[in-house]
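Something for you to look into today, if you have time. Could you write out one complete protein record for me, on any chain you like? The space below this message is yours for that.
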Amino acid sequence: VEICGGIASGKTSFASLFNNRYITSVFENFKKSPFWEAFYTNPGKYIFETEISFLLLHYHQIKKSIDSDIFNLICDFSLYLDLAYAKMGLKGSKLHSFKNVYSEILQELHKPNLLIYLKCDSHTELHRIQQRSRNEEIKINLPFLASLNEYIEKEINNLRMEIPVIEIDSAQNDFVNNEYVKHKMKSLIHNHFFKSA
């Protein structure tokens, strides 16, 4: 299962709900990318190497988990989100090169069994970014978040006929603090994992 959503849409918080003996959460470690600091300093200049490195990082994390015979994975990242970032920031031969690597990865890993789409408006995302006060996110602005959300929406709409998509409004569903919502989200995903049991 992959979780797709904009910055501060709640991907890591959502995945954290399921890290138990039945489901294994896989968390992105963005600082393993050697380019993330340079990207946040000047995203327009360092976007190609950043997007390629994140795509390979995510591929490696999923592949390593599968090779370790870990089943029922839920990732707080998505290869489709990587593709949305790439389409937003790359053009021409660089986008073509990214898509070639992406296609090779998808042939090996195949598509996820489920995609969780955390839909969140850009104003809420910006408020959350400001609240968590990460130095590397200081320059993120509303137009960037709105544009990214548009590209994500396009990718999700292209996928709806290919794989199951559960869409959750993460601005309206507080699965971080509200126990009822937490239980509701857990039941929703557990039912997917174990519906055939």
